[in-house]
What does this fold into?
Amino acid sequence: MATKSKAVKKTAPKSEAKPAAQAAAAPSGHKVFGYLPDDTPPIGAMLSLGFQQVLTMFPATVLVAILTKFDIGVTLLTSGLGTIIALLVSKRKIPMYYGSSFSYIAVIVTAMNAFAPECFADQNQFYCADGVKLVQVGIIGTAVLEILMGLLIMRVGKAALDKVLPPVVTGSVALVIGVALAGVALNEATANWMIAFITLIATILFSVYLRNKGIWGMLPILFGVVVGYIASALMGLVDFSIIANETWFRVPAITLPAFNDPRAWGLVVSISLIAIATIPESTAHLYQMSLYIDELAAELGRKPFNIKELIGLNLIADGSDDIVAGLLGGAPGTNYGENNSLMAITRNYSIPVLMAAGGIAILLGFIGKLAGVVNSIPVAVTGGLSIYLFGIIGMQGIALMQSEKVNLFDPKNLAVGSTILILGIGGNLALPNGIFPFNIPVLFPNGIPAIVFSAIVGILMNVVFLIFKSED
It folds into this structure.
């Protein structure tokens, strides 16, 4: 990765600044192409670049909706609308695209099995409205937590947050989330092991061998689905009547949160605590994008944007996106690393392009045939994808601890990390429905989900170590 140039030319006033793609030759003699956040490309470039952003987010975002049985149209709608609102909340300074987050799948699946078991267990049902309405309350709780975290960071700084949520806690929780989903992936794969492994192997090969191959390298999940779908069709496993029975145009199944249902309030705690894993991820994406944007700005002789300083505002934007999802019934979201990578490859960080992408995603949410195609994907195909993707979530937890140089020879870190892992993974595998039998009125009347319980215990242990310091 190129090092950011220290010398930055004096830029023209904003009203006279040319789009990056029309910039003069750089000092090295070659012409620099690209769009910075405040650049507006021509309409043709804006639409084509925006469509690339949608294509990149589509496979993972839709897969979350499939696995959690949220409405696909609403999930696409809230992805686009949430992105637009988040961009406006960030004052058009932070170029991010928002899609559905895998981190929330485990706790949503737990909620669905508890509150909409018949619908969720039926493979012929693609959407469980009653469960979605309850989960929406929890998603709004996540949004409130993210906004409060953002406001807190803007006031006291990120260092204070890192003391309460150090990498050993956030990384261990991310690891638990990924491994705890292993049962979901394998249960789906049992529908047809051959199809699951064809999909898994194809996705892995595309991920490895298309890396750094431009737009193609951003779509391994889509290509894996296509290979698995074709293999399933050849084996007669695809029900094409699902597509035929869908209309071309349909209004997404928007639902309102079930605020009046007492069962929903436990989900506020359960779902919002998963933000422990998504907040560090979002912050890491912000740092990554800041580096790329300022490198391009330096090459163009423009002032650096320094969006890395907007950590708090970035989390408020994250929360704004989840408010949209929570109010309308879409899957909870996060800013997408895949889209960030696409922006780095195309050197396009234009906010107007991301606005256009959001508009395209909204329109796709109204195409019924598209939902029909997605719903016709055999369960074994999603199982093969899930084996790979859920494992990546767990590995990202390890990567976070490595990148932050967590000392695993420190007994405090060992205590926190090991406790989180065993309570979270062991509880999810060994306890009935993955729930600890500790009933708390209103919040957890039926017990505490293992992932949530492990996160709570890990945070409290870390707080104890902060208050009662040990000798080094």
Remarks:
- The beta strands are 98-100, 333-335, 435-436, 448-449.
- Residues 1-25 have pLDDT under 50 and may be disordered.
- The longest helix spans residues 129-156.
